[in-house]
Predict the 3D structure of the following.
Amino acid sequence: MRPRYILIFGPPGAGKGTQGRRLAAELGLAYIASGDIFRQHVEAGTELGRIAKEYMDRGLYVPDEVTVKMVLERLGRPDAERGAVLDGFPRTLPQAEALEKALAERGAEVDLVFYIKISEAEAQRRVQGRWVCRNCQAAYNLETNPPRVPGRCDVCGGELYQRTDETPETLRRRFEVFFEQTVPVLEYYRARGLLVEINGKQPIDAVFRELKAAADRVFGRIAGSGSGGV
Ligand code: ADP
Ligand code: ADP
Ligand code: ZN
């Protein structure tokens, strides 16, 4: 079977990470989030982390060259052989082009694209309460999705911390950048008939049910069409 690729778009706080991890686990695909990889580099104090942090803390995108190289390397690892759920990549048209090219080289393409929509006011509420695991990057929310043990990750027991790019000013800028640079990418996938829009202002389980149903429709169709190969 050829590898499968699902993209998840949405403004900050839409629930991309929460849903993307769960969908990837459900479908047996790798979960790859560019923001998580950048934060891992920041935590580890690497040169890439130092460069990325300068942009992240200002709410700006990290340059395409740096981002594309990092994500394509990750996509080539063995655990992504069956495909991946990509969260937060591509965010610009050049990133989308680089992704298409890399997937075409392995006889694959983007199969399905989600756009999880929420308002800026809802995002503001959510990111204020967001705590992230230092170790595995899973996100929690003090109000809507609290960890079982305060301050500790349910998945790995890691310490939870608050991101340094969640001030109201940075969030405003991240929303602007999303509409300026990433909505054109979404429109490109919409024109290709791949886009499924989801109302992100529903409980976590309700959003997940919609994503899963759409994935079942698309992959059921691929499996049924006989075009998937072996
Ligand atoms: P959120 O989950 O709030 O949408 P992410 O964790 O995905 O944010 O990304 C955090 C930051 O990492 C972004 O504001 C940006 O600086 C950087 N980043 C993540 N993905 C990309 C990308 N594809 N291109 C450029 N910068 C990115
Ligand atoms: P993104 O990756 O799009 O920035 P996250 O998945 O990190 O978003 O979610 C943002 C915050 O909102 C987190 O604190 C998360 O626990 C919480 N959250 C995610 N989905 C929902 C939802 N459907 N309802 C309420 N809170 C949510
Ligand atoms: Zn963890």
